[in-house]
Amino acid sequence: xxxxxPAFADATASDSALRRFLHGLPGVxxxxxxxxxxxxxxxxxxxTAKAYAxxxxxxxIDLTTLExxxxxxKVRALAAKAVHPxxxxxxxxxxxxxxxxPDMAATAVAALAGSGVKxxxxxxxxxxxRAALGVKLADVRDAVAAGADEIDMVIDRGAFLSxxxxxxxxxxxxxKAECGSARLKVIFETGELSTYDNIRxxxxxxxxAGADFIKTSTGKVGVNATPxxxxxxxxxxxxFRAQTGVQIGVKPAGGIRTSKDAVKFxxxxxxxxxxxxxDSHWFRFGASSLLNDLLMQRQKLSTGRYSGPDYVTVx
Length: 315
Description:
By secondary structure, this protein is an alpha/beta fold. 46% of the residues lie in helices and 10% in strands. It has 12 helices and 8 strands. Strands 7-6-5-4-3-2-1-8 form an 8-stranded parallel sheet. α10 (227-244) links the parallel β6 and β7. The longest helix has 18 residues, at 227-244. The relative contact order is 0.15. The model has no long low-confidence stretch (mean pLDDT 94).
C-alpha cells in the first residue's frame, strides 16, 4: 500500500514486517527523556522574546469546543474569538483553527469564511474510536463535505496495544484517502499507551501511514500532553524528516493552560525539532482555556498591568 515514505515500503508490507520495524526502533530512556524535558522547561524567556512567544502561541492554537452541549451559537462565538481574540486590541494574532465535532463543521466554516482561520473537525468516533471502519469513514466524509480543512482522527488503541499494528496502519491510510485536500491529524491518546516506547512506535506508525500531524491526546482522559511525551514526538518528526525529507507536524493537546506552559513547549520545539517547526503549519496547541491566559499576559506586557479574567471573553 502507498505511504508518504517510499523508503520504508518494506516495513509496511505485512503485519510481521511492521512489527519488526516498530519493535526495532531504539528503546526510550525514560529517565533521560524526562530529565531533558524538565531541563528545557527551566529556560528563561524575557521581554521582547516573551512577547514574540506569546503571539506565536496564540497563532498556533486550535480553539476547541468538543462538548455534548455545543450549539451553533457557541461555535459562532468561538469563531469570532478565533478571528479577534482580544476585541480591545486588533493587533492580537488570530488563532490557527477552530476545532469542533463534524455536525458543527458547517457552522464553523460559515462563521470563519474569508478569515484565514482553519476549521478542524474531530472524526472516527472521537474520542473512544470504538466503531466499525465504515462508520469512522462516514464520519470523516461528513466533516470533509461540510468544508473542514483538517481532520483529527483517533487511532484504535485496542488494536495498537494488542500488537495489531497493520490494522491501525491500514485504518489511518483509509482515513487519509477520505480526507482529500484536508490535512490529517492522528491522535494517539498517549495517556492510554502506557509506555514511552509505545508512544515512539505510534509516532512512526502514524507518520508511515501518511499523517500530516501527530497529536498526543483527545483531552478527554486523565493524562494528556506532557513535556516528555511531546519531546518524544518532536524527536520522531525530526528523525523522520532526516530519513525521508517529509516534514510532519506535532500537536500536544489537553492540560496546557498557562502562558508559562505554552512557552515551555515552544522551547521544546525549537531545541528538539528546530525553528522550521515554529509555525502554525507545523505545530499546534489543542486548547481552549490557554488562549485567555495568553491574552492576559499579552495585556500585561503592553500595559504593565495584570488585567485578570474579567478582561477577556468567556469561551
